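The record is given unchanged here:
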Amino acid sequence: MEIITVTAVLVALAAATRGVWSPCGLSMLTSINPVSERGRNHRFGVTAGWFIIGGVLGGATLGLGAAILALVVRSTGIGLEARLATGAALAVLATLLDLGILGVTMPVIRRQVNERWLDEFRGWFYGVGFGWQIGVGVATYVMTAAVGLLVVLAALTGQPIVAMAVCVLFGLVRGSWVLLTARVRTPDALRSLLARLDRLEEPVRRAVMGVELVAGVLLAAAVGAWLAVVLVAVSVVSVALRVGSSRRVSRSAS
């Protein structure tokens, strides 16, 4: 059971980090920072604090659903091995979805927050409102299948409190990324930060898929070494096919 919790936490951290590069996540960085808040006669620290609180509340909202699912898992008496195998299979499925092999294009749920709130409401209101939408994970752009995977793994623990805690962690981390701009004092500094983030997007995307795959292998290994080997083989072949396809497309385009 502990391995399910550990992998759920790892996936939650990865999913929360990937959200920084969503159109909505980047929009939050350009909208809530010391420069823009000063222009609206608001204090960045106050708005950012409410944003993080909103993120935690959003994570708790997501966690409520995960906790209910955890209750269902516990009440049905599903064995540990079955839960481990299910988690392993879904972790690999998440990796394949993020690779684009299964025909699903990320991001999904292509929705932005309403930026008119910035001009219509006080900083605490749009801070907590935007934070909640970011923290709940599925109200705006979903950049990775890891968001769904974290809910499933949290539920597979069979412990509602643990499931809730994992999702709250997701909301806290995702909300806390607003602090990336805490030292930004000029528009040029903000542009420089965004440029650095742009260069990091692809490495982070690959790292998140790596976390999904590692989660799958760890869960599979807890069931049996043979299952872990099978999942690794399937994943390696899938990645090789994806890379080969990308190279062919690149050559034809050139």
